[in-house]
Amino acid sequence: MNTRAWWRFPALLTRTCRVPRGPGLWETLALLSPGVAPTAVQMAGKKGCPALCPLDENDLEEQFVKGHGPGGQATNKTSNCVVLKHMPSGIVVKCHQTRSVDQNRKLARKILQEKVDVFYNGEKSPVYKEKREAQKKKQERKKRTKETLEKKKLLKELRESSENVTEKRTADSD
């Protein structure tokens, strides 16, 4: 983690102190509140959520537009679809997963935060790494399924050929 990342967190969680390391060498260390070890979960603020780049509300442009999709008049007439644009990167996210504007706003921010993190960090982003792992697992499952189907097909062919051979032997012996 770079030194800029340490200053992104609230001042209440961090404090700085100078510790001597040899003659005349000083380093600034960021320490969390006493007795608590720093973890990625603490830094992210949620369980299972990796530490992502924080979004500045001043960099966001938020719009509420009419909904779309199934649901008829209830969704098509209400403006509960949230469109968020991150001005520095130009990334636009449209969220209409629920009927609630508040929930859509939260979901849109979460999605935008993940996309911005992937945009700036690329392959080093925890979100990108998780998606790559999920893709690899899916490919492995597909490969295993394909192999299993091939084995079943081969077994079926062997069974049919052995039945044909036994039928010919019984016919020849008669």
Automatic annotation (TrEMBL):
<dbReference type="InterPro" id="IPR000352">
    <property type="entry name" value="Pep_chain_release_fac_I"/>
</dbReference>
<feature type="region of interest" description="Disordered">
    <location>
        <begin position="129"/>
        <end position="174"/>
    </location>
</feature>
<dbReference type="GO" id="GO:0043023">
    <property type="term" value="F:ribosomal large subunit binding"/>
</dbReference>
<protein>
    <recommendedName>
        <fullName>Mitochondrial translation release factor in rescue</fullName>
    </recommendedName>
</protein>
<keyword id="KW-0488">Methylation</keyword>
<dbReference type="GO" id="GO:0000049">
    <property type="term" value="F:tRNA binding"/>
</dbReference>
<feature type="domain" description="Prokaryotic-type class I peptide chain release factors">
    <location>
        <begin position="55"/>
        <end position="154"/>
    </location>
</feature>
<keyword id="KW-0809">Transit peptide</keyword>
<dbReference type="InterPro" id="IPR045853">
    <property type="entry name" value="Pep_chain_release_fac_I_sf"/>
</dbReference>
<feature type="compositionally biased region" description="Basic and acidic residues">
    <location>
        <begin position="146"/>
        <end position="174"/>
    </location>
</feature>
<keyword id="KW-0175">Coiled coil</keyword>
<keyword id="KW-0648">Protein biosynthesis</keyword>
<dbReference type="Pfam" id="PF00472">
    <property type="entry name" value="RF-1"/>
</dbReference>
<comment type="function">
    <text>Part of a mitoribosome-associated quality control pathway that prevents aberrant translation by responding to interruptions during elongation. As heterodimer with MTRES1, ejects the unfinished nascent chain and peptidyl transfer RNA (tRNA), respectively, from stalled ribosomes. Recruitment of mitoribosome biogenesis factors to these quality control intermediates suggests additional roles for MTRES1 and MTRF during mitoribosome rescue.</text>
</comment>
<dbReference type="GO" id="GO:0072344">
    <property type="term" value="P:rescue of stalled ribosome"/>
</dbReference>
<comment type="subunit">
    <text>Interacts (via C-terminus) with MTRES1 (via S4 domain). Associates with mitoribosomal S39 large subunit, peptidyl tRNA and nascent chain.</text>
</comment>
<dbReference type="GO" id="GO:0016149">
    <property type="term" value="F:translation release factor activity, codon specific"/>
</dbReference>
<dbReference type="GO" id="GO:0005739">
    <property type="term" value="C:mitochondrion"/>
</dbReference>
<dbReference type="InterPro" id="IPR052405">
    <property type="entry name" value="Mito_Transl_Release_Factor"/>
</dbReference>
<comment type="similarity">
    <text>Belongs to the prokaryotic/mitochondrial release factor family.</text>
</comment>
<keyword id="KW-0496">Mitochondrion</keyword>
